[in-house]
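Q: For a teaching session next week I want to show students how multiple molecules come together into a single three-dimensional assembly. I've collected the sequence lines for a complex. Could you give me the predicted structure tokens for the whole thing so I can convert them for display?
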Amino acid sequence: MNIKEIAALCDVSTTTISRVINNDPRVTQKTRSHVKSIMKKYNYTPNAFARGLILNSMRMIGILCTNIDDPYYAKATSLIESEIKKHGYNSILGCTGNNLEDKIKHLDLLLKNRVDAIILIGSAFRENTENDHIRTAAKQSPVIIINGLIEIPGVYCVLCDEKESIIQNVRLLTEQNKRNIMYVYDVLTYSGLQKLSGYRIGLELCGIKKEISVSVKIGADINEIRNTVADALKLFPETDAIMASEDFLAIGAQKAMAELGKNLPLIGFDNSRYAQCATPSLTSVDNMLDSICPIAVKLLIDLLNGKKVPSKIIMPTELIERETFVTKKSSTV
Amino acid sequence: MNIKEIAALCDVSTTTISRVINNDPRVTQKTRSHVKSIMKKYNYTPNAFARGLILNSMRMIGILCTNIDDPYYAKATSLIESEIKKHGYNSILGCTGNNLEDKIKHLDLLLKNRVDAIILIGSAFRENTENDHIRTAAKQSPVIIINGLIEIPGVYCVLCDEKESIIQNVRLLTEQNKRNIMYVYDVLTYSGLQKLSGYRIGLELCGIKKEISVSVKIGADINEIRNTVADALKLFPETDAIMASEDFLAIGAQKAMAELGKNLPLIGFDNSRYAQCATPSLTSVDNMLDSICPIAVKLLIDLLNGKKVPSKIIMPTELIERETFVTKKSSTV
DNA sequence: TTGAAAGCGGTACCAT
DNA sequence: ATGGTACCGCTTTCAA
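A: Of course. Below is the structure for the complete assembly, covering every listed component.
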């Protein structure tokens, strides 16, 4: 069933049908309702490809993340998808993995499919070498980066200040007289580097010389993480607090401590559901996806509507206190 | 840049360009490479909408789940997306929520976008009343259901035997002389009903009369779950084992037990990463997504290639033993 | 208010 | 091996 057949059935031209489809006012109420009833009767749906061909858009937005099976990306994707939908766009999803070639391939795929815009989730899309693929993509389609930062024209970033939040964590720990703070991390994406740098700066600002950083194998399971951290704890028995770059790592650290009969203050990152599931429950930095994602989508929609928008928006983070570490703000002894 | 311009630049017809694009052998090697070089030089990409219009396909597969921010759906989506990609298809993602109207709207959206097939993840897509929307969708496009079962022509289901796995769990618990088994659940989708029914059948088969089932508010956070289960444990202090319909609920139950100083055998469901994160780590039923998803995609691709495929594939589950419950298979005292 | 017809950018049939 | 051209289903300009 196509527009011509519907036109014939209604005894009007295809133009009129098109006008009805697109809510063009230049159709009498009578004709309009008649056409609508026929369309309903025959369950007619305009061909999206044909519309796409002319309008040069199928109202699709490409979302790329490295791995949707990571709760952080899942949450972001979930929030973005729901926002996008509100504005009448659909989401095409790609999970790229961490391989640069695959990221490029996915980007190309989205461009080939002529998406209206591209949203990259996470700083994994900023390579530490060059970012030509993103530069190229941005020339053809707006690119939004969630919690990542690349300064390229046509690329818009909405992120939280991860470095600063880690600096604050160090400060909070030192306020409780912790001077041997272990930092557990794995992947050194831009974000990973920011956090690591926050750790180092934090130590420096607090006058601490000794860094105890533990690098965990990327993609390690909980037992591998536990073992790695346990080894580190044996190596640095003076450790009196632990921070991790992600909740999952923090939980591995938690298990390591349990194994060694330790119970040090512990701060995770992402405030994921893992943090709630942990026993004791995990104090964690909330990276504000709940605010960032809607803001990013709003920015994108404004952009698509031709408005002027900022190229960079940075939010502060928030420490969610649970059982593994509490600040004593009101230290009324 | 379109096919005509490229044709002009190459001094050949659009037909030839098209042939090169589609790897049609009827082009000399010389022409082909020349065309290819020009295409590369001008960074030409055939318009996907135009191709879609003619071929009536953009090689897109629609994936629907209720909530990608649930690790179960996230894992399934991740596995499906990666399999689909291998076969040269892209994924368009929709998160519908649990509202029937929204599910219908999403289904319509996918059909409007003329996806090549639709994959529904989870039994939440089977309504307990009627399923006309799925019936209608299946008439226009193949529908695959992951871990859900609806017997409708054009709908293909790949699932695991959840009911049976719960029956087995009851049996394993009774073998350890547990007779007061609490069952914690929330949403009663088809899957939820299957599991609940497995619990009841299991009890019956083991000659247990007393059912202790606890219904938790849908969407409850970990504290609400803990409170609900704690109340139930106070009401039924004779409880000597707990099963849950999902890992997250099991963890809530775990926290309730901790609160009350209890330490009963506990079995979760889904074998999600939550199970690893729990302390003590959670014994859980693996619902075999790792096998189901590739099988489902394979079935789909076969279907799209016109092969005959089964309408229903059922896999057995597997109990992953961790700390909260271990079977004593080799009970050599 | 309505309609005829020219595209949008490809593909595929039928010639050559 | 290559090309001319009708056509996919819709939108939009221009004319009536």
